[in-house]
Amino acid sequence: MTVRLFSFTLILLIALVAAPVFAEEPLECKVCHSDKVETDKPHPALMMGCAACHANVDATNIPHDLGGTVRGLMMEPPDLCMMCHDSGMFSGKETVHMPVMAGMCLTCHDPHGSAVPKLLRTQKPEICYECHDKIGFYGPTVHEPVGLGMCNFCHEPHQSGNPKLLKADVQGICFNCHESDKFTGTSVHLPVAEGKCTDCHLPHASQNAALLQRKGNLLCRKCHAQVEKTPHAIMGFKSAGHPLRGRKDPKRSGKIFGCLSCHLPHASESPSLFRYKADSMFDLCTYCHEF
């Protein structure tokens, strides 16, 4: 009886001493690596335990034996990441983001946790500017999504079926914010009809108003150089034509006379993109001139 009591007491004592060790075993990594697990937005994989990814680590040795692998990982990214994340979301489309193509998931994402959504290492757009020169996103005129740091409003972060990682074709992207009915009419500017908004406008920032690639009339002359060689109001017919600089627009207060004094840039219900209702050039002239 005494022997049994002694044996039971010994077993109970061993259990009581060992219990904290077994109970705290999942937290052993946290003792030294608290910065990896104490985070606002932890990687869900942490709930599976450190060994879910760091399977080759022998934590009984300090420094740890990593089993000849990088950080003791069972496999390297992106293969490790694709064990949980669908690989089809990161490959197979026309345009793949360069870091994704190179398997550099950790360039943008922290594998353990982050204070930023999606486990991003820093906030947008700063994380984008680590690779993309921010000088191209600043100027007197900045596209509003760019100014708000909303890169993903237009671009996919991983891959896309469109060039430039766009979420849709260029015109489709623009019409998400800009009302499409303002770009339709009896007469539609050819770049607009073909969905080539960026033929005239820069997508991020510009030195000119309305994100134009060139200032006012210079932009128009990029395609319409023939107006200087054929009969046109700016060259005159029998006498000198309209000046395109230094004169005030008689119909639009505060505007300088130029191409847009007579023409609309996108679409019109009159021929030749006339700004005012007119069936011919001479009808248009009557809005300012008396005959």
Structural class label: mainly alpha
- What sequence of helices (H) and strands (E) makes up the elements? HHHEEHHEHEHEHEHEHHEH
Low-confidence stretches: 3-27
Shape: elongated
Number of helices: 12
Main pleated sheet:
2 strands, antiparallel
Beta strand count = 8
Summarize the amount of helix as a percent range: 25-40%
Radius of gyration: 33 Å
Task: Give the N-to-C terminal Cα separation.
Answer: 129 Å
Mean pLDDT across the residues is 87
Strand order across the biggest sheet? 1-3
Strand content: 5-15%
What does this structure look like?
- By secondary structure, the chain is mainly α.
- Among the domains are: 74 residues, no CATH class; 103 residues, no CATH class.
- It has 12 helices and 8 strands.
- A two-stranded antiparallel ribbon has the order 1-3. The protein has a two-stranded antiparallel sheet with strand order 2-5.
- The longest helix has 22 residues.
- The relative contact order is 0.06.
